[in-house]
Amino acid sequence: MTKVNVRNILIHIICMYSMLHIENVSTSCQSHQQGKIKELPLLGAEVLQVHAPPFVTKESVSSETHGHTPAFSRVQRRRSFIKKKKERAGIANGETAKGSDGGGGTTTEDISVPKDLDLIALPQLCFPGGLQIASEQREDSYHYLVFTDVFGNRTHAVVVQYYRPIQDVGHQNGHLSSSKSSRLYTAYGICVISKYPYYNALRDCLIISVVGGLCCSSVLSQVFNLRPLQIGLPSREDKDRPAVDLDLHLPFLCFRPRQLLQIITSLLIEQRVVLLSCDWARLTLLAESLMLFIHPLVWQHPFVPILSRQMLDFLMAPTAYLMGCHLHHYEEVAAETDDLILVNIDDGTVSSSWSDGIDLPDVPLAAAECFITRVEGLQVHYDLEVCHLGDSTEVNARRAQRKQWQSKLNTHIQNITLELIVNIFREVHDHLNYEHRVFNSEEFLRSREPADQPFYKKVLDTHIFHSFLRDRLTRKMDAFTRMELSTRTEAYRLRSMTESPRRPTMQELARKYTSPESRLSKRLGASLPNLGESGGSLVGPLRQTSFKNIQVDSGRFRWTSPQRPVRFFKLPEFPPPLAYHYVQNYYQEMITLLGKAISGAASGDSSLLARYHYLRGFVNTVAGKRLDALEDFQNLYKTDTDIFPGELVNALVDSLQEGEQALADRRPEIKHLISRVKRDHERERARHVDEGVKRFQLPKKHMQLEDFVRHVQESGIVKDQGTIHRLFEALTVGKEKQVDPETFRVFYTFWKETEAEAQEVALPASALEHLEANECVFKLSSSVKTSHGVGKIAMTQRRLFLLTEGRPGYMEVTKFRDIEDVKISSAPFLLLRIPSLKIKTTLRKETFEVNLKSEVDLWHLMVKEMWAGRKMADNHKDPQYMQQALTNALLMDAVVGCLQSQKAIFAATKLAHFDRMKLEVPLMVPKSTSETLKHKINPSLGLTSPQAVDVLLYTPGQLGVSSDSEGDGNPKLWCALSDGKVVVFDAASWSMQQNQVQVGTSRVNCMLGVDRQQVWIGSQDSVIYIISTRSMSCNKQLTDHRSEVTGLHQKEDNGLNPKVAYSCSAEGAVIVWDVSTLQVRKQFQVSCDRLQSVQLCNGTLWCCKYTYKHKNRVHLVLEKIKCHSKMCIFVTTQCHRCLKEQLWTACIDVGELCVWHLREPTKPFQRIQLPDCAGVTCLIKVKNQIWVGGRGWSSGKSRGKIYVVDAQRHTVEKELVAHTDCVQALCSAEDRYVLSGAAREDGKIAIWKVE
């Protein structure tokens, strides 16, 4: 046999098989030639050679050198693995193994083989149809393998089978002889095994290895030469997606779209699926494509794309699986095994083993039709795509052209299949309770279309969906989340800004009886053309939102992800032989080349720099330079944390020797990395202790207040703790303070029945014309007599109206803001007096009266609560009041329906929160506040209690953002809440754009917009997190500070000098950063007990700090630091703001402002007293005004207050009161608006108009 020289390094394993026992050949050949047998028998296969990384083994301990791994030498021993297995069996039976010297001893492994690789069973998969001698030369064939361990980790392989002639086929005089006329051929195989699914690249390597000698470079390379081919290894698009190195359009060539949907359905509901084909290669390629089609859902069961004939009994497994076998086993498999989904790849059919048809639930109609429409627009034929182009004469140019086309097509297909998954599971997050990790499956099922419910009933009980839920509950920012967020309609975003209970809007009711095409956009968001869902703006007309991720294709909208440029790094040729010094020289050459690439890369291309550091870190690792590897991985924090190899770094840290540990302690950046990695590792282990997902269940025992709060939150009825406390009081009126299970069950059932009834409300067209698109009917009375005829009273979140009977008609009773008075009266009816409700409005002289009979008390409470909520919402410019009032009114309805007793109305009064509040505090706000306040938004929406607004930041929009850019060009408002949560609002409509961006787990102290493309966030955990304003992802970190980051400031750009930013930390460190390279330009220390903030003014950096001069007394000082001088001036203050030649300062416990001359800051030349102010927490400059936030008194109560001070006259112009807690943050929106954020008791953001 001609030995093929196969070399590779790192994670590739090269296995070569000699598939013939030569001693058994002659007998079989003679019988075949004599016609005694028609076919040659199948022969056994064994492993001939194994080449496993690092392809060199230890030579001697004495060869170790400092900072390097021990020396290695090449081992090339050919020994039968089957023989070794028999020897082991003999030893196990008590036989003695002899060494080569004839003495006794233990058997040792000659070749290094990974422990999890079964070399005895592997030949069966390399020759799944069996090994057979052929009478003629056959073409080389390739197929693909996937190995899955017990933990679900997969290893991938490519196998080539090629035939070579057998020279010795007969006997003559007791010796083997050769005959050309009767030449036979035997199969050989080479199997390349990789951790990554580089199917095409590995196949190309095997093509060259069969044609001639194989000499390839490292798997770490992006491009390597395998003469005459140039082979590239594709990179992953993101850390959650696997690398794609196969043709994803192959399934679309084999199956029609509806059949593909059937196959995907069988995977989603975890059926036993068997792929069948006459071509072994198709089995793995189709199976791997299907795994990518259901991404980010992950198949949780056995995955064996190729079964040899000896492995067919695997199909008897009782669990779900995806397996594949040869097509000639079709009848056998179908007859012997029930409940199988049989996928015939060659014929393009899907059938079942138990019936002629296939009994699978249909994919939800809207998602299925969208998928089919997308697939029909695919161009999957390469020749049609390039028929207008000339053909290159250079093989690598043609390959590159084809690869580029395939890459674009793969991306398009992945977007289509991802859109399918998003459309199927888009509304899952609406039924999740993140605090208690509960999924309300019953509620989710109830909200599905009746025709779609069979599909969801099966999917919800699968392991694959359970894993998907775990990722949603951890708010994982993966491809699913990014597409779901980017395809939300503006109407949906606006609706998500309220906490009102779910009811169908007028627009949804209007669609209910329209064509299916019109109904699709209800669930698909922005993925289909009818996006004209107009939602009322909260402040004013909506600015046109960005559709840069939505492209028009033949009249249809298509979501596309931006194409990222592909960069290649060519590795040097690897010279033979594989001796130790050659390997080390190769590593060193690679490190040198990567160092040059890092030096030559553009400073702003952080993504490319990250890949270079990543590659060099791996090379340093295998070269034994652990500290250099850690330094490279440390640089990933500044370039791209998404590719940080946490497991490898943990292993490196654990493997450090004492000498290396001592050297690491002398290098602060590595020492900090080691401590951080260990801390993060422990935190990650603790986080995985309890990540289960619970399904909502009704309580089975009596509940005290704490348990009651948890069950109500899990049910999805309401999350706000204050509201739940009032509900608890209502349900426990007149009895022990606990709720029994039966009461809760009746209350919950009544609530859900009311929701279901709202789904069936049929309004006449005349009513739909008068109502706004986002209005919902929340309450509908029985048929009653009114002063305008007989009909039903309907209540929406904005108005009351009458649906007249007889001739269906619409008559508006009143909008809640127009109500002047509501009272209970009685109307004469024969000899009786019927209880009635009288509603007087400002728009009509006559009073509207309705005979509600026994419902009058409930309607009276509900209308008064809605009226009070509307008034407070209008006066305080806060729509949340109206949403809360609506929730209170519906809870009253459910309480009365639940209790069904005389005390029910009294119990419902416990929920009349705003009606009672208007009697306790005045509804009107001061005139100056009312005129200046524009709107309020709630960043704690969806949380169980209000969160303090710690920091606010406004970033302006970006005009002319290209269509292939990520994100959009709208301005954004960034709001930092507790524990590292950052909520992002679209400042064009004040709708919530990003529910939550997590930056660590500690409090955020400061934020800074840098270069309009980044937001820097300083945290208490000493890290500066960097978020891209386009992708909304945090993949960079600055870790040079050693204590909490307290201040950030950017120097104004003059276009001449490099852009720089300043940061300070509590222990007094000030760092000057180069914005483009994220490198430290300068660092110095300020002597203090705590450094609070920094600000640059006229070339002077002012630092605000604490000093402890006396026991238990804190003094605040400002330190003036010039760039080239050590002069310091101290004054007692905390907050400061530079204004031309003035410095404005304030104290947290004093209600005054101090104004200083910058040229002579010995004492303030002006002190401004702030009326009724107890302390200042923040101040900003807006135009010629200073806006000051703090706390003070209003109407005898402690409130958050804002003072607007004229910067020239030094007088207080306005005193604004709109927060019930201290104002903690202020920011300006292009000097047109000022935004203020309050502490935890209030937790809201107010938007103020600047005059």
From TrEMBL:
<keyword id="KW-0344">Guanine-nucleotide releasing factor</keyword>
<dbReference type="InterPro" id="IPR036322">
    <property type="entry name" value="WD40_repeat_dom_sf"/>
</dbReference>
<protein>
    <recommendedName>
        <fullName>DENN domain-containing protein 3</fullName>
    </recommendedName>
</protein>
<dbReference type="InterPro" id="IPR037516">
    <property type="entry name" value="Tripartite_DENN"/>
</dbReference>
<dbReference type="Pfam" id="PF03455">
    <property type="entry name" value="dDENN"/>
</dbReference>
<dbReference type="InterPro" id="IPR043153">
    <property type="entry name" value="DENN_C"/>
</dbReference>
<dbReference type="GO" id="GO:0031410">
    <property type="term" value="C:cytoplasmic vesicle"/>
</dbReference>
<dbReference type="InterPro" id="IPR005112">
    <property type="entry name" value="dDENN_dom"/>
</dbReference>
<feature type="domain" description="UDENN">
    <location>
        <begin position="80"/>
        <end position="479"/>
    </location>
</feature>
<feature type="region of interest" description="Disordered">
    <location>
        <begin position="84"/>
        <end position="108"/>
    </location>
</feature>
<dbReference type="InterPro" id="IPR005113">
    <property type="entry name" value="uDENN_dom"/>
</dbReference>
<dbReference type="InterPro" id="IPR001680">
    <property type="entry name" value="WD40_rpt"/>
</dbReference>
<dbReference type="Pfam" id="PF25570">
    <property type="entry name" value="TPR_DENND3"/>
</dbReference>
<comment type="subunit">
    <text>Forms oligomers. Interacts with 6 of the 7 known isoforms of 14-3-3 proteins.</text>
</comment>
<keyword id="KW-0677">Repeat</keyword>
<dbReference type="InterPro" id="IPR015943">
    <property type="entry name" value="WD40/YVTN_repeat-like_dom_sf"/>
</dbReference>
<dbReference type="GO" id="GO:0005085">
    <property type="term" value="F:guanyl-nucleotide exchange factor activity"/>
</dbReference>
<dbReference type="InterPro" id="IPR057977">
    <property type="entry name" value="TPR_DENND3"/>
</dbReference>
<dbReference type="Pfam" id="PF03456">
    <property type="entry name" value="uDENN"/>
</dbReference>
<keyword id="KW-0853">WD repeat</keyword>
<dbReference type="InterPro" id="IPR051696">
    <property type="entry name" value="DENN_Domain_GEFs"/>
</dbReference>
<dbReference type="Pfam" id="PF02141">
    <property type="entry name" value="DENN"/>
</dbReference>
<keyword id="KW-0963">Cytoplasm</keyword>
<keyword id="KW-0597">Phosphoprotein</keyword>
<dbReference type="GO" id="GO:0032483">
    <property type="term" value="P:regulation of Rab protein signal transduction"/>
</dbReference>
<dbReference type="InterPro" id="IPR001194">
    <property type="entry name" value="cDENN_dom"/>
</dbReference>
